[in-house]
Write a structure and sequence with these properties.
Layout: H1 2-23, E1 26-29, H2 31-37, H3 39-76, H4 82-107, H5 112-139, E2 143-146, H6 162-170
Parallel strand pairs: 1-2
Helix pairs in contact: 2-6, 3-4, 3-5, 5-6
Amino acid sequence: MKNLKLLLIVLLFGTFGFANAQSSKIGVANLQMVVEQLPDAKKIDTEIKEMATKYQDSLLKMQGDLESKFQTYQKQKGMMTQEQQLATEQELQALNQTVLQFQQAKFGQQGELQMKRLELLQPLRNKIKEAIDKVSAAEKLSLVLDSSTESVLFADDALDITFKVLDMLKRGGK
């Protein structure tokens, strides 16, 4: 009798859970496509590329200076005293360290380029999120997944709201 009650309770809760799952609607949006279609994203991309080019030019100049000083050292090494060689080697090591620090400060994961990219993209992300929220409310969706990531293995085209999100963004969120 006890087992029968337990079985009925499990079936009852399982049925309610299944009914709730069936009433949930899921949508997918290709956020990479959304971002690529927005003019603001293209401006941000151009600005980041210009900034990266400027930093890359500076880095190449620093590396060229280091290489030039190293070549000079190699040529004059035979005429230097032990102390001069040691001092020049220390100078070259310090210069190499400066180049590496510059590279990390500009191009590293926490570098200026990455921080600027995040700063510039945040307002765009907010606009996209707002558009997704509006489309989700209009379509009565419970969940929206990003189909441009590898975590979505399959999605029926009928679930795709990408173009509705793009339309919402192009109309200014109305």
